[in-house]
Predict the structure.
Amino acid sequence: MAGLAVGPRSYRGVDFRAANIKKGVWRSYTTYDGLPQQQITCIERRSNGLLLFGSRGGRLCEFDGVDFKRVELSRGLEGDTVLSLQRGAEDSIWTGTGLDGVTWSDGKHSQTYSEANGLAHRHINSILLDRQGSVWFGSEFGISLLGDREFSN
């Protein structure tokens, strides 16, 4: 792209810098290695260091550095397409789906929220937990905020 430079230069006041590439061995993982689906849509690290991967059609899986295993969130993950993940309080996990809203789970209990609960839209592209403990959801039709067990859009 003309005008953009990598390194300590700026373009219209924006500083673009490339991260240093870590020397070593790069490893790629595919379905042959146990990944449930090739198209990974999101990644989140759990407090125990395990990685969670969301995918289209492959649902949610956990990686311990060696093996991938499918994650069942108690009763609850609705839909197969996981578009967004956010670690919550006490290692709970918020999972945004492509068709069925968002599911919260602590491993023992789960709750799914949809448009019927006040969510702006069922297609959840992004999730953010703010410092006050409120949860923000980016969807196809705007932003929803869950605070004090109630949605505002």
